[in-house]
Structure formats: structure tokens, C-alpha cells
Design brief:
Family: Belongs to the sulfur carrier protein TusA family.
Largest sheet: 4 strands, mixed
CATH topology: Translation Initiation Factor IF3
InterPro entries: TusA-like, TusA-like_sf
Number of domains: 1
CATH architecture: 2-Layer Sandwich
Pfam families: TusA
Protein name: TusA-related sulfurtransferase
Helix content: 25-40%
Structural class: alpha+beta
């Protein structure tokens, strides 16, 4: 999936992946896609809940090479 911006939150514990994601999302325009890489297992639930409560759409999430990857479309 093609992202407009990619952030690396690997090695960061909660809540830092969410903090970095929010900051990056603020820089994107509506409809653009943010790709997030994280290693914190809690990020899966945290990012899904954050995206929903913030009006964004979690398009996809998967695990690759020991990292969790998320694609979030800005609402």
C-alpha cells in the first residue's frame, strides 16, 4: 500500500507510538495515508482505538519482520 508519509515508532513504548502518529497525522491532508511501524504489541489495539476515536480509518495492519505496520487514512 502506498503511503504519503511513513513514521518509525519501533522500540518506543506506549504512549509514544500514538504521540508520534498524532503529530504526523496533523501534517497530512484529508484522505492521505500514514504508514506507522511499531514494535510495541499494545500499539495494535491503541492505534485502532485512536484512529476510530479521531475520525481516521485504519486501512490495514500486519506484522512484517518482527514489526507491526499500520496504514491509517486521515479523516
Amino acid at each position: 500500500m502506498q503511503a504519503d508519509k511513513v513514521i518509525d515508532a519501533k522500540g518506543l513504548a506506549c504512549p509514544m507510538p500514538i504521540v508520534k502518529t498524532k503529530k504526523a497525522m496533523d501534517e497530512l491532508g484529508s484522505g492521505q495515508i500514514l504508514e506507522v511501524h511499531a514494535t510495541d504489541k499494545g500499539a495494535k489495539n491503541d492505534l485502532a482505538a485512536w484512529a476510530k476515536s479521531s475520525g481516521h480509518e485504519l486501512l490495514e495492519d500486519r506484522e512484517e519482520d518482527g514489526a507491526l505496520k499500520f496504514w491509517i487514512k486521515k479523516g
